[in-house]
Amino acid sequence: MKKRILILLGILIIGGGAAGVCWKTGVFGQQEVSGDVIYVTLISEINGDAAGVSNRYAGTVEPQETVEVELESGRSVKEVQVKTGDQVKKGQLLFEYDLSSIQDSLEEAQLELDRLKNEESSLNDQIATLEKEKKQASQDNQLSYTIEIETNKMNLKKNEYNQKSKQAEIDKLQSATGNTEVRSSIDGVIQKIDTSKLSTDDGDSLDDSANDMSSSSDTGSGSSNAFITILSTGSYRVKGTVNELNIQNIVEGEPVIVRSRVDSSQIWHGTMGTIDKDSATTNSSSNSFGMMDASGDSQTSSSTYPFYVNLDSSDGLMLGQHVYIENDEGQEDQKAGLWLSEVYISDTDTDQPYVWAMGKDKKLEKRSVILGQYDEELGEYEIADGLTKDDYIAYPAENLKEGMATTKNREEAVESDNVDMEPVSDMSSDELPADDNMDSIDYGYDGTDDTMISDYDTGDMTDGDLPDEDLVPIQDDTEAE
Asked: Do 307 and 58 touch, CB atoms closer than 8 A?
């Protein structure tokens, strides 16, 4: 039902002087005809426009994985083997550590360990001497000897701990002498090399928590400690953003279509991934087309959240490519034959259905059609006979008459005053079509390029093509949907 409503509203908006100017009796209301020229629309255009109505989001192709290579503390780089923009293979050498700095640190650590061992021996000798003297000391001096002995024993415990720590440091340094090369863990592209890290020398020894590489599936959460950042190649995902008002439309696991902005016939399939609710950004805009704010204030601020699409295949996509993201509602499944929305067909419940079509003399005529199958989800009939995709038809109204002049020019039809529109402010909310399964229908431009946009707004429309937000079709109160 939701898809059906979207298609009907697509006809309303895009049809302009035809479907977009009135509601069908019982569903859309009536068209008031006071002029002599009736606007007609090419059937192939109607089908193309109606089929394209769906929520779209702007997206960008990004790597599935990001690897960040960090420098180990206390080590200096001898030579970097790559530069920004280089393609690297898994196992390829990125840079080498300077072995001389490790050897110097190793010698210092060994000297410190020797000092601690000598200190241990000295403490043991002192304890033995004090215990011997304590046995011969007077009762008044026993306490002072006891305190001094216990102090030396505490120092001995501390010495043992320091020796263990220093030995672990030496072991790590010795291991590092045989591990001076850092290699890429993935196939990818060098996105960034932070050369400022080369001049940083804090003098600390190697830390057990230091890692050569860390990987992240979120390119937006890069670590400031990264020396080299690598973006994976061969496996991409698509990052989009959604406004907080439309976030309920993003359902993890649902199938989606990723469409090229350059060639709309080029598509990729995937599934909706997660929404990163921890990375919200706030936008303030008064250019939200098609959205209604309960506060009545169009100058509102709202947050946008990044979400991700997992692709079945990324063949043919380029890193950084801009694409459209839309829910997969079967819009790519082409049905055989000619199909037409039921709103254009009159008397569908009789054995003589017809449409208002432009005849050979460009005059309006009733044309009988033979109906085939009915698509209840889309509200479309198969036209078995009577029309072709090259025919022009008018939106039906009770007072249309055969013989009326027709025009393919929308402006000419509007100038002839053959439509009657009514302001939104004069209508109550119960006069608008509703669907219990739909909380809202959003055509979704919120002022940024990365939020939801309508399918018909692909950059080819001018401001003059946009529908008037203050006008809606007249509803016939005599029937309820």
From this structure: no
What backbone phi and psi angles, to 5 degrees, belong to 6?
-60, -40
Using the 8-state DSSP alphabet, how is residue 346 labeled? Answer: B
What is the amino acid identity at position 459? G
Per the DSSP assignment, residues forming a β-bridge with 135 are none
Please report where in the chains the tokens 């997969």 appear, as a residue.
328
Distant-in-sequence, close-in-space partners of 196: CB < 8 Å, separation ≥ 6: none
| pLDDT attached to residue 20 | 40
Candidates 38, 322, 67, 338; CA nearest to 214 is: 67
Taking the model in full, what pTM does it have? 0.43
Residue 203 lies in domain: 65-96+182-234
Same-domain pairing of 360 and 225: no
- Does 369 map to a domain? yes
pLDDT per residue over 416-467, tens digit each? Answer: 555 443 333 334 444 444 444 444 334 333 434 444 554 444 434 434 444 4
Residues 253 and 270 in one domain: yes
149 and 212, same domain (yes or no):
no
DSSP string, 316-332: T--TT-EEEEEE-SSTT
Which regions of the chain are under pLDDT 70?
1-35, 48-54, 199-224, 283-300, 331, 333-334, 413-481
Q: What is the pLDDT of residue 72?
A: 84
pLDDT score at 465: 43
Give the domain CATH number at 291: 2.40.30
* Cα-only R_g, the chain: 38
pLDDT at residue 443 in the model:
37
The DSSP bridge partners found for residue 267 are 259
The secondary structure of 47-84 as a DSSP string is HHHHHT-SEEEEEEEEES-EEEEEPPTT--EEEE---T
Tally of domains within the chain:
4
What pLDDT is recorded for position 441? 37
Residue 19 contacts residue 12 (beta carbons within 8 Å): yes
Parallel, antiparallel, or unpaired for β 93-97 and 77-80? antiparallel
Do 282 and 152 have their domain in common?
Answer: no
d(CA 50, CA 273) in angstroms, rounded, equals 28
**CA-to-CA distance for 278 and 250, rounded, in angstroms?**
16
> Could you give the CA distance from residue 448 to residue 462 in angstroms, rounded to a whole number?
17
pLDDT tens track for 146-158: 999 999 999 999 9
pLDDT of residue 4: 58
> Which of 481, 405, 468 has the alpha carbon at shortest distance from 35?
405
Query: Taking Cα atoms as reference points, which of 33, 28, 34 lies closest to residue 12?
Result: 28
Helix-then-strand count for the chain, H and E: 5, 27
Which residues pair with residue 193 across a beta bridge? 228
